[in-house]
Design a protein that fits this description.
mainly alpha; binds heme C; Cytochrome Bc1 Complex, Chain D, domain 2; about 55% helix; 6 helices
């Protein structure tokens, strides 16, 4: 019995990096067209945008990514170097298009201004 549980623990240890690697691979970044990547956030200097984005985040994004945005199960953390390094334009593109094949819905039904508010909030998250 002991041997079996030892084997299971070893297996879990071996699998962990594989599972972790499959949580958000960042492949979507390769699909963002240059013109979207370089778009600047029209709300970059709007001091109310982050708070508005926080509200939207908590209703639309927190159910999957967690209220603290630290990720849940197969939903990646948004408090990462990759998300921080992504441009505002790249994040807005992802929100607009989603990545449904990998479980990330599209937010194209939101008015564009709300996507830019969410982007401000996501970029203000601590790592
Ligand atoms: C139904 C669950 C779900 C909801 C709701 C959701 N996401 Fe996601 N999100 C995912 C999954 C799953 C991925 C991983 C996709 C991938 O690996 O390409 C993801 C990926 C992302 C990424 C890329 C992370 C990375 O490390 O590459 C960002 C940014 C993101 N989501 C932001 C948001 C925001 C902002 C919202 C709210 C507007 C939101 N998501 C709502 C499931 C969700």
């Amino acid at each position: 019995m002991k041997r079996i549980s030892l084997a299971c623990s070893l297996l879990a240890l071996l699998m962990a990096p594989l599972l972790m690697a499959s949580v958000g691979t960042g492949q979507w970044l390769k699909h963002v067209p240059e013109k979207d990547r370089v778009r600047s956030n029209p709300l970059a200097h709007d001091s109310d945008a982050t708070a508005a984005g926080a509200k939207l985040f908590h209703s639309d994004c927190a159910p999957c990514h967690g209220a603290d945005a630290a990720g849940r199960g197969s939903r990646p953390t948004l408090r990462s170097e990759r998300v921080r390094r992504a441009t505002d334009g790249e994040l807005e593109w992802l929100l607009r298009n989603g990545n449904l094949a990998h479980g990330m819905p599209s937010w194209s039904r939101l008015p564009e201004v709300q996507r830019w508010q969410i982007v401000r909030y996501v970029h203000a998250l601590p790592i």
